[in-house]
Amino acid sequence: MRPEPADDGGQAPVLVAVAHGSRDPRSAATVAALADEVRRQRPELDVRVSFLDLSAPRLPDVLAGVAAEGHRAAVVVPLLLGHAFHARVDVPGEVARAARRHPQLHITTAGVLGGSPLLEAAALDRLTAVAGPLDDPGLGVVLAAIGSSHAPANAAVAQVAEGWHRKFGWAGATAAFATATEPTVPQAIAALREQGAERVAVAQWILAPGLLPDAIARSAHAAGPDVLRAGPLAAHPAVATLVAERYASAQTPAASRAAG
After folding, report:
1. Where is the signal peptide, in residue numbers (predicted)?
2. How far does Cα 58 stand from its chain's mean position?
């Protein structure tokens, strides 16, 4: 991989990963573990963790600290799987405010994690861990996400599930959502059984554990104790590789012009 462009001080821009945040401490611990995996893969990078809400440290505080240390450049990498409200509004808003407060710090925002084969590889790896080999025509798969009021974000999850169905030739695959839209996980499980699925597994299109992922797991179990349940993507090595890729891509001339 090519080296990242240096800031004015001769250092690579600081990588500031930002997650949504949660009252569940497992979420912040998972984000910290993911940052550790990025550092393991890319020890030359200065990686910081931040949150939009509910957990500390918050993104504005981390960017203020980066500026106070004398760094001249930072890349904010949203640990978000879709281009929904947090990616479209919250992150750009916080970055714009930080840029006004710290004009000496050039801040670039990377793309969200969704849309990468690396993210799908991580989710399929988690699925394989509970379902076994995926070349099973009797398998039905639910790809469970949080859900959004932004329809294109939900459609992107559905497209991933449809792509898996075509690739593996399962009895069926469908997206399901914990909030904001349908189908719910139980509805999706029932539909797959109606389509002839002999086994049903629920994969999570979710980064970290928390209240809603727990609710997804409970609803899947309630739909049938034989339903297989994969865990969140968490600190999977492929996700860490993707974080570093988003960081690098944000520093291309085209990305920099778009961010400006």
Report:
1. none
2. 18
Whole-model pTM? Answer: 0.92
> Which 8-state DSSP code applies to residue 55?
S
Distances (CA, A) of 34 to 180, 228, 234, 241, 247: 27, 25, 7, 10, 14
3 state SS of 219: helix
- Own/partner contacts of 97-102, CB < 8 Å, gap of 24 or more, are 97/60, 98/59, 98/60, 98/63, 98/64, 101/60, 101/64, 101/67, 102/63, 102/64, 102/67
Q: How many residues does the chain have?
A: 260
Residue whose structure tokens are 């080999």: 133
Which long-range contacts link 67-70 to residues 24+ away (Cβ below 8 Å)?
A: 67/101, 67/102, 67/104, 67/105, 70/9
β-strand partners of 76: 16, 109
- Please check the confidence at residue 258 and state whether its pLDDT lies above 50: no
